Amino acid sequence: MRILITGGTGFIGKELQSHLEALGHQTRVLSRRNGWDISTGYLVEDAFENIDAIVHLAGAGIADKRWSEARKRELIHSRVASTALLAKALKTRKHQVRTLVSASAIGYYGADSGEVLCKEDTPAGHDFLSTCTLAWEQAVDEVPVYRVVKLRIGLVLGAHGGIFPVLARPIRWFAGVILGRGTQGQSWIHIQDLVKMFACVLTDESARGVYNAVAPEPVTHAEMTKQIAAVYHRPVWWPKVPAWALRLVLGEMAALVTGGNFVSSEKIQKELHFSFTYTRLKDALTQILHV
Ligand SMILES: NC(=O)c1ccc[n+]([C@@H]2O[C@H](COP(=O)([O-])OP(=O)(O)OC[C@H]3O[C@@H](n4cnc5c(N)ncnc54)[C@H](OP(=O)(O)O)[C@@H]3O)[C@@H](O)[C@H]2O)c1
User: Fold this and answer.
1) From the alpha carbon of 156, which atom of ligand 1 is closest?
2) Total count of domains within the chain
């Protein structure tokens, strides 16, 4: 397949590009540096030339900056307007694109969905993350191609980006603590399984709609912290850092660490027979440590 990857310069995109190429696919990256400008609606003329499928990853980093009102607008706009730009161009230009696979996020279920095991038909939450993800998914549904797939991605664990280096840094420096109540769910996925999942839904013509992209065994935040500490042979200190203190430092964005979700991977395993390489957090962490 010939695949265009938007936001392909990022953490997931770089790993995905190498994985797809290793499988024999051809890839091209659409970046703000060389191919589009979402604010002006510019998309390079030959964006879809010889392209069979698009993987849409582009979006401003959710955890990169505090969530001011302007930043929240940017987080939504970068996802919704970029999707709308692709949709408009696919409506008006000649092309042979059949498939769109878009990133989405388990934030769809809300920053904190408590003890509930979220499945694909669990309703969206009511906070900023849900609003952002819902608007993004609705824009994706408007893209006029034969097949649309949305992967609701969990916390992606990998050595070269995402949440793992952020969680691991204080622990390695003997400053590992549990944030918030500790019982909040963390639905993680190893980067290698995630890129395998993208390849699976790109090539399996029966894949359609939403799939949760998380490993089969979510853990609590306390468990995640303890397991990272264990692979580094470091302690975890008590007491826990209370949610109010985190809100003082991080503002509304504190929800990213004080909240969490337990998310089910059953649908993709049953419907598409997807099999994970990393089902246990310990094995995923051990692999990452040895990269
Ligand atoms: N990593 C995770 O744990 C995780 C979890 C759930 C969902 N996701 C979603 O998966 C997607 C990819 O994640 P990632 O971790 O690879 O993110 P990333 O490393 O931040 O990469 C995202 C890419 O999007 C483009 N981008 C950044 N700001 C933008 C803006 N304002 N407007 C348009 N494009 C912009 C950039 O590409 P250019 O500079 O080349 O344009 C960037 O390389 C994101 O949409 C993210 O929300 C990630």
Assistant:
1) 3
2) 1
